[in-house]
Amino acid sequence: MSHATPLSPSEAPLLEVRDAAVALKSGDRTMVSGVSLSVMPREVFGIVGESGSGKTLLTRTLLGLQDDAYVAAGSVRFDGRDIPSTGYAASARKLLGHSIGFVPQDPFSSLNPSMKIGKQITEAIHLAKGWPMGAEKTREAAIRLMAEVGIPEPALAFDQYPDQFSGGMRQRIVFAIALSQDPKLLVADEPTTALDAITQRRVIELILDRSRSHGLAVILISHNLELLRQSVGRIAVLYGGQLHTVVDAGDIGTRVVHPYAEALFACIPTRDKELADIRSIPGEPVGAGFGLTGCAFSTRCAHVEAICRTAPLPLNGTLAPRFSACILGRGA
Ligand SMILES: Nc1ncnc2c1ncn2[C@@H]1O[C@H](COP(=O)(O)OP(=O)(O)OP(=O)(O)O)[C@@H](O)[C@H]1O
């Protein structure tokens, strides 16, 4: 079910993030640095990294949702407009009500357990449209949306509470709320982690179908490289709060790519891989906050040379669609 979106070079990106850094307000510690990436309209884009690499912090801060962190450097442009650096979080949050749908890492917590799901979805529709649609019309719109995300018997489900649904169904309710705005971009942070493998696949299929049918661009964030490899067109790889590569999903496992992307791929069992070919990465992961001097992966990299520890990390300020930050130029 790979989703290699053909990118049209003449089209402007929907999202452009240039040399972005994210710092914590307390102590002013920079956790993520030098991240540049662009997402095209209708593209399904992945962000992968081990736990602690900075995926959630980066994404939530870029969306204006992380109260204790801020965009400390760089620029962000969405749908042809710069998000001003002064008052950044408030401006970014305004987009969330209309142009960007967000599914957080813990979607269950974003549902109100004491409110019928129909009401939660109609409220989201009212907020998104900004004008009263009339009770019957809104109910119809909500039921249509619930059917679109695969909730069986939506008219009946409309009057039920979140705890009357399975994890996979609750996940779909959260998607219905995120999609109620008819956004241009859906950002889903580990949307399937809490689900069993079959439900996981169904939820990903749902996202990909919606992208195809509604021209929705998607950023799928996951620690699961195999899931992303099978589902998205390009993948940004984070490590230690650094952006290590932006790579075509189809190139991982078939061509020389950035050493960290290669090492991540070597860890995962795939259908065509022998057991002996599966290798874990030696050493301990480096947490976010490494900075831009030297490569954060140098302590574990099979190709390391002395320069990897001291040279400035290459950045992708020109927003090339494919990029490797390997100081030795591997995967470039
Ligand atoms: N509000 C915060 N205050 C202090 N440290 C934080 C805060 N948020 C994140 N961090 C730290 O920043 C680093 C990156 O965290 P983040 O949650 O972004 O990682 P992640 O890649 O999304 O991993 P996971 O998949 O486990 O969520 C971690 O070391 C985390 O402890």
Automatic annotation (TrEMBL):
Keywords associated with the record: ATP-binding, Cell membrane, Membrane, Nucleotide-binding, Transport
SUPFAM superfamilies in UniProt: P-loop containing nucleoside triphosphate hydrolases
TM spans (from-to): none
Source species, domain of life: Bacteria
One term of GO molecular function: ATP binding
Stored InterPro entries: AAA+_ATPase (IPR003593), ABC_Ni/Peptide_Import (IPR050388), ABC_transporter-like_ATP-bd (IPR003439), ABC_transporter-like_CS (IPR017871), Oligopep_ABC_C (IPR013563), P-loop_NTPase (IPR027417)
Compartment(s) of residence: Cell inner membrane
Pfam families: ABC_tran, oligo_HPY
Membrane topology qualifier: Peripheral membrane protein
Domain ABC transporter: 15-265
Main location: membrane
NCBIfam families the record matches: oligo_HPY (TIGR01727)
PANTHER family: DIPEPTIDE TRANSPORT ATP-BINDING PROTEIN DPPD, OLIGOPEPTIDE TRANSPORT ATP-BINDING PROTEIN APPD
Family: Belongs to the ABC transporter superfamily.
Official protein name in the record: Oligopeptide/dipeptide ABC transporter ATP-binding protein
Organism: Kaistia geumhonensis
